[in-house]
Each structure stands twice: as C-alpha cells, then as structure tokens.
Amino acid sequence: MSLRSTLDFLLYDWLDAESLNQRERFSDHSRETFDAVLDTCERIAREKYAPFNRTVDTQEPHFDGEKVVLPQATHDAHKAFVESGMMSAAQDYDIGGMQLPYTLQAAANSFFAMASVSIGSNMLTSGNANLLMVHGTEMQKDVFARNEFSGRWAGTMCLSEPQAGSSLSDVSTRAVPDGDDFQSDPLGPRYRLTGNKMWISSGDHELTENIVHIVLAKIPDENGRLVPGTRGISLFIVPKRMVDTQGELTGQRNDVALAGLNHKLGWRGTTNTLLNFGEGRYPVDGKAGAIGYLVGAPGKGLHCMFHMMNEARIGVGTAATMLGMAGYHASLEYAKSRPQGRLVKKPEAAGAAVAKDSAAPQVRIIEHADVRRMLLAQKAYCEGALALELYCARLVDEQKTGDAQAADDARLLLEVLTPIAKSWPSEWCLEANSLAIQVHGGYGYTRDFPVEQYWRDNRLNMIHEGTHGIQAADLLGRKVLMEKGRGLQLLAGRMTDTIGRAASVPALAAHARALGAALQRIGSATEAAWSTGDPADALANAVPYMQAFGHTVLAWIWLDVAQRALQGDAEKTRAVTAGKIGATDYFFHYELPKIGAWLNVVETRDPTCTALPEDAF
C-alpha cells in the first residue's frame, strides 16, 4: 500500500477531513484543493528530496572559514519547498497563507519527511514563526514571522547549553538591557545577550538571507545575579543579521558566531551547531553582545517557548514515523523480490523431522513466516503512528476552529497526547527501522541499501525535543494530573466510545474487550503510582508507564481505524481492509499484552533502579 493511499484513507475515510470545509476558515477548500496540495508535495518530494537523501548523508555540511557549505541539492529542495507555499500553508490569507487545515499541512509534509528527513529544517522555521504569531508584538509578527513564512528567512530554537543540556533551570545565557532607551525600540525591548547554545539545528547556513534565533536567556536581578530555576527565563528574538522595522537587512552582522559544527550519527544533511552569543566577534555599534528583542513578558520565556516546543515534539514524532515508514516500504519491496531458501514441507509421518525440499525452487523471503512477522510489525508501528500524528493534527484544527467546548477538549487532549506523539514513534518506528535492516539480512548493513541510513537518522529522534525520560516525567508527573485529571478522563471517554462501537463487530469484539481491560489497568496504575503522594515514588518508573500508556493509545487508534475500514466498500477496499485488520490483529496479539510487564513495576512502585547503590553499578 503506497503512502498516498494510506494518507487518503486516514484523511478522508477515518478523520473525515473534508468536513472541515464546512467551517468558515476553510470554506474556500474542497477535496480537489486538498488533493492538489498532496499531489504537489508528493511530486516535489519525489523529484527534489528522495533522489538526494544519500547525497546529504555523505556530503555533510562544512565550514569553509567564512560560511557553512551545503550541497546544491539542499538549496534546490529548499527553494522548491518555499515556492510550494507549504511554509505558511495553514496561515491566514493576509500574510500569504492558504488557510489550509493543519491536518492537511501535516499530511502533505509527511512526503518530505519520508523522502529525506534531513534536507532542510522547515519545521523549526514554521514553529518559530507560529510562536511569534501568538506571543510576539504586531511589529515582531510583521518583521520576523512574515519573513519566515515567506521562506526569505529561516528560524531556530535555542534552548540547550553545553553545561545544562536539557535542564533549562541551569540556563546561564544572560540578557542585560541595551542602553537607557532599551524599552523604546520598536522591535521590542532591546537587550544584549552573552552565552553559548548547543545542539542548535540549522543554526548557521546560507539557505536564506537571514536566520531568526529564538533564544532562552535570563535577565539578572538588581544585584546582577541570575534567578535560579526556570522562573527567571525570558525569551528573545536574536537575528543573525540586523534588520530595520521594514524587515530589511541593515548590512550589519549581529554578534552571533558559529563556534563549531556537531557531526551526528544521522540527520547529517542538517547543520547542527554550537553558537556563541555576544563574544565580540561581530560587535554591534562597537560593543560586544548579541542584540535580542524581548518576546512577551520578562520571566515568562518558557511559557512562550512551550508553544514552539510542543509543536516541535509532534513534528519529531512525525519525522520518526516517516523514517520508519520509509524503511518499511523499502523492506517490503525487498522481501517481495528477494529469493532465498525454501519452505518446510509437511512431514510424511507423525513425529518425523521437519525438512525442506532442496530440489524445489527458492521462494521469495516474504513467504517465510518470520519475515512476514517483521513486515507486519513495521506496518503496525508505522501506519499506527501516522494515524496518531494525524489525529493530533486534527485536534489542532479543532482547537482553532471548533466551538468553545470542543476547542477546550482538543487543547487538553493534545496536552495528554503530546508526550506519546513524540516518544512512541521515536521508540517503535526506530524498532521498525531495525526490523527493516533484519529483513534485508547482511545487505541491510551496507550502504548499497537505504535502510541503515533510515535507522541512523531515526536514532536521533529519541533525544530530539526531550528524551524519553523527560517526556515520561511530563506525562505521569503533570499531564495526567492537570486540571484534576480531566485530560485523562477525556481520552478515556474517546477510547470508551471506540470500544462500544467495536464491541458489536464480530471481528473486533475481542480486541474491544482487551482495550477496555488495558484502559482500566492504566487508570489503576496511575492511582497506584501516586498512592504515596511522593513524586520520587511515582516517577521512578515513569518510562514503563509511558510505554504502557503509549501502547494503549496505539491499540485504541488501531481499533478505531479497523472499525472504520470495515465500514468501507468491501469490493473496492478489500486489500486495504485486510491490511488494516491484519495490523490491528498483530497489535492486539503481539504488542498490547506487553503493558502488563510495564505496569507491574509502576503499580508496585518498584524501587530496583533507584535503590541500587551507585558503587554497585
């Protein structure tokens, strides 16, 4: 089944994306305009991205002493993407957008992620601009966000620091007022920043004429000290090149310097940088210090940044999904064409040894049971993850255009699902990539086939935008508890609706019962984890909790998809339906039972990992 047919089913048959056109914001659109967008993105991905996936892996970015050099293919792909209008596809008409549903934008962008995930960093640019559209001033929107949406400028997010990593409480980049008139700058209160930011994707390149860095920094108190923790963190726009109020370059470089390029296991086509702010290499008006413009209120930087971080987390989940999907499609094609071995034959007598007919012709490896197991696992992981990511995208549209109650429900469901949308594909679609290598046998480890690169690229996504541990602590420590557990209750309600519909379908009734039991177990495990009231007890096994939670969510997604597939035209969609039911059966038979082991340690607040003395490791 091709990616396009998978997307068409999920968008139109399952999520009913066409119904969004009945809403005022999307009323200019139709199935025809949606399909035209998908056609365009599929074509660009096929022509400008896919042929150069190996190129950008082997021709890594390098610094020639003056600028970062990228392959010409990257420039061509970026140009084609910008010209497609997809950078601002979901934005208002009056800023150059198409007012497309975000659901369609997410689906269309999946073509690029599958074709070559490390060409460009458009996710960061659009996320940066989206943040400014919510938290920036009108001038900041006009000057910075609009130029990012047009593709003229690029954007980054600068959080991590060499000494702090993911611990944002330990951010030490400083921002001090720039002159007595710092409050009166039309681009926002003007500060001078000094500090270092590490792991900054697309932190320097020549794809665009400017780069807009969104930077977390702390404003010192009256004694010149940085406020401990996250309360003192503020957010700043720091352009690579200085601009005026008309969005034009002034010709002056800001004091942001490339300190070095990081060379990673995967995503090699995207520059990853260490940036020095305010070291004096490019003094502005004769003084060291990178000029930054405050976004929002002082001390509220993390609140603003979460808008971009949550969007990026779903983006990372989608990237992980599509890398898994690319490996699945490659290994499926290989399995259908690679002859190797022979099938066992039925023994002639009871108790006889299993044997093969060595004179029989070789069979294609897809005929071997274990290869079919690996292919079906990949299908269940990757198509299930894609359904989850598009479901989250549909919630974004509901939050923006639904009635007040529906919008608020969508907001809270997104809060609960975001850690899963980021982390579940990062773990299980990586496993799909590992299985894709296994299907290829020894050839899977060579660069003659693409699956080893897909694995390397995908391995980064377990760390991108917050590790498993961070996402798990967020889920169990905050998301399932927020607003007195209402988000968890909403999610349980949606699962219960699916269970009720599936219970009356003979092919799905057993799965409906299994999902009901899993949902009940998640609820009891959540209570047990917090029964002592001690966060240390609860969070000691947060990752197993998240794994069980994620598997339960994916079982629900598959049950809902299968129930919808069975409602389709039996003759027209016979293979599609068989594939959906097969993947659902696999997930419920092979995957969902795993939650028992994970939840055992959660429910007992097992201390094995925390109790072991350090010198015993």
TrEMBL record:
PANTHER family: ACYL-COA DEHYDROGENASE, ACYL-COA DEHYDROGENASE-RELATED. It is an enzyme of class 1 (oxidoreductase). Residues 168-187 are annotated as: Disordered. GO terms for molecular function: flavin adenine dinucleotide binding; oxidoreductase activity, acting on the CH-CH group of donors. Residues 353-474 form the Acyl-CoA dehydrogenase/oxidase C-terminal domain. Keywords: FAD, Flavoprotein, Oxidoreductase. This is 3-methylmercaptopropionyl-CoA dehydrogenase. Signal peptide: none annotated. It comes from Variovorax paradoxus. InterPro entries: Acyl-CoA_dh-like_C_dom (IPR025878), Acyl-CoA_Oxase/DH_mid-dom_sf (IPR046373), AcylCo_DH-like_C (IPR036250), AcylCo_DH/oxidase_C (IPR009075), AcylCoA_DH/ox_N (IPR013786), AcylCoA_DH/ox_N_sf (IPR037069), AcylCoA_DH/oxidase_NM_dom_sf (IPR009100), Diverse_Acyl-CoA_DH (IPR052166). Belongs to the acyl-CoA dehydrogenase family. Gene3D superfamilies: Acyl-CoA dehydrogenase/oxidase, N-terminal domain (1.10.540.10), Butyryl-CoA Dehydrogenase, subunit A, domain 2 (2.40.110.10), Butyryl-CoA Dehydrogenase, subunit A, domain 3 (1.20.140.10). The gene is dmdC_2. Its EC number is 1.3.8.-.
